[in-house]
């Protein structure tokens, strides 16, 4: 069991679980939108998410002159050179994969790539970068199915997308809340640094209440019961982590469980 935990901790440090969770969520929405997923599209999505998250961390530590305060940033600081090499190599692989994507997905991917490039260039100066990352994550997850579906998009579909975005944002807010001290020490910007921990926590709980309201509405309409309940479950796990923060602070448990929630939609894929 200890070996398994150490292995998952390493996957978490490398953001491999984040990439895997993005693929799971994309497959989940492909099923909802009756789209047959292309394996090359899923691989391109996972690799792109990994490159973005890794590049984001590497840009964070690039200007540090002292040892980073958080374990995640220490790791990226220590292995900057090999991680840059791997990131660039994988970026080139993604470029090769785009020639095998559906035309609408390719076009949407080009537009999204431009936005991502601007984000990485300007991320140091962005206020509330968590919102931008949650938007990019949601757009990337939705792109493989939303751009090619023949299903008539209803209000319920839009509400599920809002739930995905809310969960992604709550996840990022939670992490910035936990990492307030280390971010302050390293000079990183976050919503928690700008707003303070109390306001960030209140915002997190407000988004959770909105997610609950969406679930209650969709349930009352007998629409997408399993998907909306799964999103509420993901949200609930994040709230539990927030409420019992003393326990989850130890050994960065909040990171391990907080990122693992994006595998919960696996249940919806097989149901």
Break the fold down into its secondary structure elements and pairings.
Elements: H1 2-13, H2 16-32, H3 39-62, H4 71-78, H5 80-97, H6 103-122, H7 129-146, H8 155-178, H9 180-186, H10 191-195, H11 197-220, H12 225-243, H13 245-249, H14 253-260, H15 266-270
Features:
mainly alpha; Farnesyl Diphosphate Synthase; 271 residues; globular; 0% strand
Give the strand content. under 5%
Give the N-terminus to C-terminus distance in angstroms.
28 Å
How many DSSP helices?
15
Low-confidence stretches: none
Radius of gyration (CA) equals 18 Å
Question: From the helix content, strand content and strand pairing, which structural class follows?
Answer: mainly alpha
Taking the sheet with the most strands, its summary is: none
CATH topology: Farnesyl Diphosphate Synthase
- Average pLDDT, to the nearest integer? 93
Question: Regarding CATH, which class?
Answer: Mainly Alpha
The best one-word shape is: globular
Count of the separate structural domains: 1
Relative helix content:
over 70%
The total of beta strands comes to 0
What is the CATH architecture term? Orthogonal Bundle
């Amino acid at each position: 069991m200890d070996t398994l935990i150490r292995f998952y901790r390493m996957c978490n440090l490398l953001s491999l679980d984040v990439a895997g969770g993005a693929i799971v969520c994309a497959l989940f929405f492909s099923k909802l939108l009756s789209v047959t997923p292309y394996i090359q599209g899923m691989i391109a999505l996972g690799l792109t998410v990994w490159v973005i998250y890794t590049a984001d961390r590497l840009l964070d530590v690039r200007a540090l002159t002292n040892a980073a305060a958080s374990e995640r940033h220490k790791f990226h600081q220590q292995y900057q050179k090999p991680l840059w090499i791997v990131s660039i190599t994988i970026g080139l692989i993604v470029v090769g994969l785009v020639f095998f994507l559906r035309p609408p997905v390719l076009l949407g991917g080009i537009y999204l790539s431009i936005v991502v490039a601007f984000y990485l260039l300007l991320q140091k100066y962005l206020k509330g970068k968590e919102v931008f990352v949650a938007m990019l994550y949601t757009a990337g997850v939705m792109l493989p199915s939303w751009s090619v579906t023949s299903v008539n998009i209803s209000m319920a579909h839009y509400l599920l997308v809002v739930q995905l975005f809310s969960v992604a944002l709550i996840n990022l807010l939670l992490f910035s809340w936990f990492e307030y001290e280390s971010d302050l020490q390293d000079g990183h910007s976050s919503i928690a640094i700008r707003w303070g921990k109390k306001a960030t926590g209140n915002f997190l709980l407000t988004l959770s209440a909105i997610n609950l309201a969406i679930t209650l509405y969709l349930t009352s309409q007998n629409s997408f019961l399993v998907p909306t309940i799964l999103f509420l479950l993901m949200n609930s796990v994040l709230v539990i982590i927030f409420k019992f923060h003393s326990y989850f602070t130890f050994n960065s448990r909040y990171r391990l469980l907080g990122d693992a929630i994006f595998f919960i939609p696996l249940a919806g894929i097989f149901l």
